[in-house]
């Protein structure tokens, strides 16, 4: 909330300047809806966001493909990084939340979600790409739907359809008198809002991160190239802030991937152990 409020304040403060000062081009919502440049008019048309997504998918496959091809009994640095990421998703997320014995069937999906979201998020700080592949709602929705399917599958597999639905909307030990109040709340919370909140949390963080970085770079460009006299020195300040935000966005990209995978594991665990 603080991050979003600060972003809104910064954009509103600079919006008037954008129309009055030549050379300053602030970020806008149009950044997230670029025009298509290939296969226009077909189901496979590509715009900049789709291209970034394809690039990051290729980067993910190449990263672990190289790691697998070079795998040795005594791992090198690159193999250590690959194994560290895989072990983190398996041990620190899946097994830690679901339990070592029960986590095994769900490790692949949790690992895929963690690494997929991580690589899609990181594109926001890669020069030349400069926008997170998860900053448009389509990709967060896909991951949220996958997480939801995994959660529902785990519940149905362990308790059957009836047992899963009952456990999702009616916690154990609730007096019958409270059922009319509890059931609608639990239904909305557990079966409707979970994918919605997963989607919005990821999307909002990636959108705000892009706008903050773009705002800093736009200000740097203006101060260095268009400002007069001593005002050019402000470019050093805005550029330094941009570097700090790059490091911060790297942290946020990893954190959001962790949170998304962690919540997926929590939802799976709750559907397995529902009473």
TrEMBL record:
Transmembrane regions: 47-69, 106-126, 132-156, 202-224, 236-268
GTP-binding found in the keyword field: no
Presence of keyword Signal: no
GO CC annotation, single: proton-transporting ATP synthase complex
Subcellular location per the Swiss-Prot or TrEMBL entry: Cell membrane; Membrane
Any single Pfam family the record assigns to this protein: ATP-synt_A
Membrane topology qualifier: Multi-pass membrane protein
Keyword terms of this UniProt record: ATP synthesis, Cell membrane, CF(0), Hydrogen ion transport, Hydrolase, Ion transport, Membrane, Transmembrane, Transmembrane helix, Transport
MF-aspect GO terms: hydrolase activity; proton-transporting ATP synthase activity, rotational mechanism
CDD domains: ATP-synt_Fo_a_6
Protein family: Belongs to the ATPase A chain family.
Function text: Key component of the proton channel; it plays a direct role in the translocation of protons across the membrane.
PANTHER family membership: ATP SYNTHASE SUBUNIT A (PTHR11410)
Protein name: ATP synthase subunit a
């Amino acid at each position: 909330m603080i991050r979003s409020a600060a972003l809104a304040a910064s954009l509103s403060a600079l919006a008037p300047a954008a129309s009055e000062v030549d050379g300053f081009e602030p970020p806008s919502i149009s950044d997230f809806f670029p025009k298509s440049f290939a296969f226009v008019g077909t189901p496979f048309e590509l715009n900049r966001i789709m291209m970034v997504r394809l690039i990051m998918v290729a980067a993910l496959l190449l990263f672990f493909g190289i790691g697998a091809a070079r795998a040795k009994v005594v791992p090198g640095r690159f193999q250590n990084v690959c194994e560290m990421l895989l072990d983190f998703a398996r041990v620190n997320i899946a097994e830690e939340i679901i339990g070592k014995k029960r986590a095994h069937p769900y490790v692949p999906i949790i690992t895929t979600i963690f690494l997929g979201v991580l690589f899609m998020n990181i594109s926001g700080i890669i020069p030349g790409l400069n926008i997170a592949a998860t900053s448009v709602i389509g990709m967060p929705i896909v991951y949220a739907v996958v997480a939801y399917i995994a959660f529902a599958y785990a519940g149905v597999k362990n308790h059957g359809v009836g047992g899963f639905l009952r456990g999702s909307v009616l916690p154990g030990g609730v007096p019958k008198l409270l059922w009319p109040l509890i059931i609608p709340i639990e239904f909305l919370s557990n079966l409707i809002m979970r994918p919605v909140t997963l989607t919005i949390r990821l999307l909002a963080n990636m959108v705000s991160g892009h706008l903050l970085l773009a705002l800093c770079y736009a200000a740097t460009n203006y101060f260095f190239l268009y400002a007069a006299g001593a005002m050019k020195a402000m470019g050093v300040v805005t550029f330094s802030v941009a570097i700090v935000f790059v490091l911060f966005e790297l942290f946020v990209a990893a954190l959001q991937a962790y949170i998304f995978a962690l919540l997926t594991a929590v939802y799976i665990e709750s559907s397995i152990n529902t009473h």
